[in-house]
Input
Amino acid sequence: MSAALIDLNSERTRRTPNPEQIIIAGAGIAGLTLALALSDKGFQVRIFEKSATLAEIGAGLQLSPNATRLLDRLGVLERLKYSSVEPQAICLQDGTSGEKLLHLPIGDHARERWGAPYIVCHRADLQNALLTEARNRSNIIVQLQSAVTHHKADAETILVRVQYHDRIEEHQGALLVGADGVWSNTRTAMSDTDRARYTGSIAWRSSVAVEELPASFSALMPPGINVIAWTGANAHLIAYPIRSGQMINFVAVAPDRQNGRRWDMQVNPEGVSQNFIREFASWHQGIRDVLRAGRPWTPWRLFEMKKCRFQLEKRLVLIGDAAHAMTPFAAQGAAMAIEDAWALARAIGSGNRRLDASLAAFASARTHRIAAVVRRGALNQLAYHAKGPVAVARNILLRNRPVEKFVQGFDWLYGYDAEGRNPGEN
Ligand SMILES: Cc1cc2nc3c(=O)[nH]c(=O)nc-3n(C[C@H](O)[C@H](O)[C@H](O)COP(=O)(O)OP(=O)(O)OC[C@H]3O[C@@H](n4cnc5c(N)ncnc54)[C@H](O)[C@@H]3O)c2cc1C
Output
């Protein structure tokens, strides 16, 4: 498949019989990153997004060096410069006593050790930066209000059906990439039972302007600009600055006691929000005060894919949450979406293998990487939500183990380069 063969003029038609173009379903983090990475390799890309606008969906994101090194190469990190924040440390504290347990340096240390910055930003700022960059590229077409509904593949091409307003469009391409998130229609179209499952936990998200933080909470925060995680029995709270440091973003994760594993029940934000605050009743006063200051707290039920699945058919590939939605305990969902996108563009654009062999190699390498990240997330959940003697043992370990040992434990994750420049890889 040669990028030079692409006929740009055919893009003006509503039916695009362009067998060379790559079609992407979903202009989220994965889809937009893939469009940019493919554009750099000279491919014609058409990306369909079902929403009318890419608005303020989601909340804060931590982006570790394994993701920011790729955003930098795509020209996106520079666009995030003014809205993102580069914290100095990740701090773990006990949610009940407020005691400081671990201070993991990032900031300049992350740049030196892992070759790229560790930043925090609002998801909407990242998506806008990706979209602005995509709109500057002549070989990317972003079409909003366009839901991918069906596809049909033959040996050489794939035909994709799109609902655009009240019209049905058909577009032909070399590949369809389902980057359509945790509720992926592309994935369930192949098997209706292969969908995300509810974990029984809810992430409550809110943000508070720095000048409105309760004094009791501010006193709990270590000096400087940091990502802070407070641990507690069955729950944890994360805080970090977003929006150039003017707001503090909060994510509190707790079990969904009201609905158990039923996720299809209505959430009454006021009533449920009170229940959620009660979950933290025995926590430090500063934390209870800040939970009351956050208004509104938006519930975000946590889903995960039962099985990580990248390739569904010869000409149909999944990336991001559509392939492997995971819990946020390792703060890596968006980072993995970005890595997937880079690795897929590399596989398609390598030109030295047949497409199906390249895709199979891509799927295999990414499945291993995702499995390791999911394991780290499960470990973090155990550590953050520990109670009783396990929590006591955790605190002793966090206080006494040399910080360098913890830092080393992140080398495989944050030092990773999806370009394949990793020790022991091709
Ligand atoms: C509480 C919480 C905290 C998190 N914190 C972090 C963090 O700190 N760091 C991190 O890296 N990750 C974090 N994540 C994970 C991260 O938000 C997701 O993994 C990431 O946004 C997934 O990106 P995506 O592009 O795969 O999916 P999405 O961002 O969901 O994008 C999918 C897009 O596809 C569109 N779409 C859907 N169906 C169709 C269709 N049929 N046709 C066309 N378009 C369609 C949707 O409208 C959407 O725009 C967190 C998640 C949660 C829940």
